[in-house]
Amino acid sequence: MPAPEVTVVNFASQMSVGGQGNPAISYSSQNPVFLPFVHSLPPVYRPPSMVRVSVDSFGRQADGKSNGTDMTPDGRYVVFDSEATNLVPNDSNGVPDVFVYDQQTGQTTRVSVGANGTQGNGPSSGGKISADGRFVAFASRATSLAAVDADAFQDVFVHDRETGETALISLGHDGAPSDGDSGWPDISADGRYVVFESSAVNLDPGDTDTQNDVFLHDRQSPRTMVISTMLGDNSIGGETPSISADGRFTAFAYDNDIYLYDHSLAKLHRAYQGSGGYYAGQNPEISGDGNFIVYETVTYDDIPWPPGPVNHYDLKRYDRQADTSEFFSNSVQPFFGSSPNPTVSLNGRFTAFGDGLIFELDFHTEEVVVVSTNLNGESANGVSVARAISADGRIIMMESVATNLVADDTNGVQDVYLRDRGSP
User: Fold this and answer.
1) What per-residue string of b and e applies to 321-336 under the rule 16 or more CB within 10 Å gives b?
2) Is the dihedral of CA 406, 338, 77, 42 positive or negative?
3) pLDDT of 326-362, one tens digit each?
4) What residues pair up with 168 in beta bridges, in sequence order?
5) CB 349 within 8 A of CB 363
6) Cα(409)–Cα(415) distance, rounded to whole angstroms?
7) What pTM value is reported for the model?
8) CA distance 63 to 66
């Protein structure tokens, strides 16, 4: 008589971390087996790697420039836009498109398409992806992606990689086309909320000014609301928004300051205030848990000797719970004419930054390492920019014009790479 089948179902992930809890259960109706709860498992070693991801599904290099824009927290899916025409079959529109590379399968797919796969008749860029890789928000001037898009302005769309549908997000509150350009989208982990900037004035009746504003769109309602409106008695605008994983918090910049909007409380807070054009705050990115914002500040110095006037950039991190900002450039390096362009991990512990060389900083230990290197430890021989970092800080997504990061890089254009530092 054959032994009864045992089906293993592990419930350890549902238990409190470090608590006593009940044992994890392996269950079969014929033969229940109880396994002890394992508090910690030996780390799995992962060797360091450098992979070029702006390639087609056969690993062949792109014939045009590519820009990295986002990746999922686990580093599996990478979003980039590209001028290349050879990444997918039948790419004949002659404009940049948005692509998703699956690191697990090696497949590259184009997502800036209509519901029936129709390619865009205008350039697309700025893709942001949900945590599971299903939804991609992006900006496009194409009018062929959604039936209701009849205007000549740049709009924001969300493509569902599971159903193939593409939805127009930057639509007027009465269903009419928007009357201004929209861009710089970001999307929550579950794909429900999308934030973006727009010069349109017909997206929300509550938008009564003519400034560039930040909007929050709930795909479930669906409703679009302006969130960069009033702070006290002052009317403000907004740009470059970044949303937390649950969609509750949005960070954005405006007029040298950094702002934080709490969707749950409908409350707007100034997280950082610049001073008269000096120490201007810009390029904010919020951590997935909503507790931290990394951003850069810039000052202008008129230096009489060559190279003359320069900008100085510094890296800062805002702690929402403490309502304070920390200054990190002194412990990292003085940025001299080079923007940090920071990106932050899910829990705010790690940031990757740099425009030229790329660094990774552990905020807990203040350890800094250079990550724009090949596996021989040689620095990139061209400008590199950090674009995203994995939840555990292990994987950094970057774009680079370097030719020495991987073997056989002969296309002579900027590519997108994943740098895995390895573990432990």
Assistant:
1) eeeebeebbeebeebe
2) positive
3) 887 654 554 444 668 899 999 999 999 988 889 999 9
4) 157
5) yes
6) 9
7) 0.86
8) 9
